[in-house]
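Appendix B, record 7
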Amino acid sequence: MALNFEICKVGKSADCTKLFIEDKTEYVSIPPDDRASYALFLVGFFYNKEGDDERLTIDNTLPLTVTTWEVEVTSDGYHYFDLLPILVWTSTNSYSIGDIVYENTFYWKALTNNSNEIPTNTEGAHWEKVDDPYTEVDKVNDLGNPVIDKVTRYDDINLCKAEICYGKVVAEAAKNNCKDCSAAVNKDFMRVDVLLQSAFLLTAQTKFTEAHDVALVLQDICNDLTDCGCS
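Structure tokens (predicted):
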């Protein structure tokens, strides 16, 4: 059975500055579908409707053992992640020009066919180092096969700040002891409630860019909530 890679968000920090992405792949004990056969490299982006999505900083220094990535974020909205499962070099495989492997803390590209020589820290006639495996995504080897197979995409609409904001407006509306501004507080509540439910619905419909726009509107509203100064 072919191995199906899977990642998902399993949590976020209380201050909304971090997302936690976990490898949920169900590995088996026999190569090449066991965990030890793969180096996992995670890439993440924050969507920008104007183009040039922002690449997120992700620690990929432990690709052979990582199970969870801690990703710093600065905003609510649409974040997406690509998991690159890269095979660890083995002498039992034959490689074609362009194939990507992991060996001895580095990623390598095959320069020759049937490159069974082990990659070393010094580049040679058979291999060259690849600093960023993501640059090799969508490329094919000399045989026309993907050099990084089974790239897995995970889409996420982060609503951490909006959810905290919702809790605040609910608490403020529940006080109901500031008659002079109760209408404004109720207006805040209705706006946040409708937009938050809209973001959830759009996400469920996989309309991620539309959900992103709603998340940013929510963020603006939550930065300008009515403050009655009531207790």
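Remarks on this record: The chain has a mean pLDDT of 91. The beta strands are 7-12, 18-23, 38-46, 54-55, 68-72, 77-87, 100-103, 106-110, 127-130, 152-158.
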